[in-house]
Amino acid sequence: MLVWSRSGRLVLWLLFALIFGVLFLAPLAVILLSSLSDQWNGVLPNGLTTEHYTDVIRGSAWNSVKASLITGFLASALALVSGTWAALSLRLQGHALKRLLGLLFFIPSAVPSVSVGLGLLVAFSHPPLLLNGTVAIVMIAHFVLISAFTFGNVSAGLARLSPDFEQVASSLGARPAYRLWHVTLPLLAPYLVAAFGLSFALSMGELGATVMVYPPGWVTLPVSIFSLTDRGDIFAGAALTMILVAATLVLLLGLERVTARATGS
Amino acid sequence: MSDAIAIRAPMAKVSLGKFWIVPPAALLALLFFYPLALIARQAFLDDSGVANAAEIIRVLHSRFFLNALINTVTISVSATAGCLIVGLVLALILAFVPFPGSGFIARLIDTFMALPTFLVTLAFTFLYGSAGMLNAGLMETFSLPLPPVDFLYSTWGVVLAEVTVYTPFILRPLLAAFSLVDRGQIEAASVLGARPFRIVRQVILPAAIPALIAGGSLCLLLTVNEFGIVLFIGAKGVITLPLLIYGKAIQESAYQIACIIAVINIALSLGLFGLYRFAAGRLGA
Fold first, then answer.
1. Fold (topology level) of B55-284
2. How many residue pairs bridge chain A and chain B with CB atoms within 8 Å of each other?
3. Which ipTM was obtained for this model?
4. Which of A79, A83, A195, A193 is nearest to A139 (CA)?
5. What is the model's pTM?
6. What residue ranges carry the coiled-coil annotation (chain A) (predicted)?
């Protein structure tokens, strides 16, 4: 304990509550409140209603939820396979190449998402690789942006893995493929689930690259929310944002429970 | 595929194993590095494939580019400074003056990292917008004719939103660093009569510097690249480099100008990424 006096601690806790309340709690609370409010002209809403939710659900919201979930799932699944593959095969490389390639796999996370979208537009707008205007280009944009995070998570998990299990398996005569499937991957499973959850959450909230490349029929949740608020329909935007937050949190909590059960903790 | 087997296996097998990296690397090259190279190509060459420096120089001297660059740097540096201060205060209290439920609060702030960034901007519209709660409250209380608080649609609105969104990225490495600080040392210093401020300065801060540098450079990178917050605030005077790229490419279909700005933005981001890797590498050592 750094501060011994009771009053000193109380002052610090009040300071914490103030910062936490203003910066983190108030935005979430106010989004929730506005998504439920009838009209809002004063300090507090004039009345409460669930109208905005029924409106957005009756509107195109369901299509957006579907587009976001499918994009998130496919992009995260591909990123998981490719990231795990990269992290595992990187272990077979020499030291210098391992460092260089490891760095290259991280670079997509450093490049602004709008530029990733711009690059895809420039590269895939002409035959033979004509993807502009298709759903595939949205998936690719999301895959590129989240691939570094899955790679990073799996690499970190791999670094923490004790090499003993694998060595015992191979000294008992397990072939590389058998060892990979029955020893390494099961040990990595918690990190794989965590990586998948993080990628999915990032994909659900992705905006910069998506607004560059999305075709008219595939409007993800963030793009939908932006077009609602841009039109001045901020209450419907708030309702759709709450749906996005709820979907993301349910997904993350669900995956956390799966991981907890798998590791037996 | 551990090192143990690699040593025992014949040479031919070792070199075969090295080829496993090819599929994911090729995928990334096609979907990421090839488009990146094309951005650079389109920035430096005109339609007939001839190097064209005139357009680049024109963009670099244009008012819209210089404004966006200045905005991007100002917002990024101010937001990072804000994140460092707020993150340090929150982390110090969470780690050294804990209260019941502080662990839960730390995890709650952590989940903020998974939420979309524009959420905060949307919330700020309701809180600090011209018809928001704060302004409505002040106007009612002091019977003012006009909304008195008017910072949201300026650089400072973006900065405040980014401080909220990116403080968790400072908090996490700081809490990890603080968990390694020897509590006995703090208690000893405090028993010997050192005041809390002095303990923070002489014992805790030195342990936190690597985490502050790593978290700070990550914040600089993320705030330079931030798009959603600036787009949602939608203030005409607050255009940053990513927003300018979006505007030029999608709204004006001026792809070459967009590519020139993208090259500069990417170079800036990669520089900050290098700084972050360097700082994080030293943190790990």
1. MetI-like fold (1.10.3720)
2. 268
3. 0.86
4. A79
5. 0.88
6. none
